[in-house]
Write a structure and sequence with these properties.
globular, five-stranded antiparallel beta sheet, SH3 type barrels, 15% helix, single chain, mainly beta, Alpha-Beta Plaits
């Protein structure tokens, strides 16, 4: 009688990578203050997600504390195929996808790429009220090169507001005058 060792099978992942050509960005709306938890659960299920964060200093009478907060409160962005939407909705604290005419709306790859690039390269970003009016400009140099936005004010430098139209949220970024061109 011969002995043949058994080789354990590799663990089965929840998801096999989808066809990259069919993957699109969606905005998942979460329960209040559950964005980080949802992002962690999505990563555990091998679902490509993006939760942009920024640092904020909160001041109380007796102390100051630096917090890391979601740039878009209530939203986590997922890069999935349309077949994976149900898997995202099964995660506790995910309420729904942002929709248009009853169908989950997609976000342009270029909008998400600009946002991811700016956050990952260390641009100083902070939440800003959504604006649709104002002069449109494009960033020529720096981590947000090629990104279009709305010029809001001019002091020592310029503040450009980058908007994601689908969820009607915006981010303000300080940019030098030489780094801007008018559209």
């Amino acid at each position: 009688m011969s002995y043949t060792p058994t080789i354990p099978e590799p663990p089965i992942l929840d998801r096999m990578p989808g066809d990259p050509a069919k993957m699109q960005w969606y905005a998942a709306y979460t329960c209040a203050r559950h964005e980080k938890s949802v992002s962690r659960q999505l990563q555990e299920k091998c679902i490509d997600c993006f939760l942009p964060l920024y640092r904020s200093v909160s001041r109380w009478k007796d102390r100051r504390k630096e917090l890391t907060l979601p740039l878009f409160p209530g939203y986590v962005f997922v890069h999935i195929t349309s077949e994976d939407r149900l898997r995202v909705l099964q995660i506790p604290s995910v309420a729904y996808f942002v929709s248009c005419s009853g169908r989950p709306a997609t976000i342009e790859d270029s909008e998400m790429q600009s946002l991811r690039q700016g956050v990952s390269l260390g641009a100083c970003v902070e939440p800003h009220p959504y604006l649709k009016i104002g002069k449109r400009v494009r960033v020529k140099h720096g981590p947000l090169s090629g990104t279009g936005g709305v010029l809001v004010r001019r002091k020592d430098g310029y503040r450009v507001v980058l908007s994601i139209d689908l969820i009607q949220r915006s981010v303000a970024v300080e940019v030098g005058e030489a780094d801007l061109e008018r559209l």
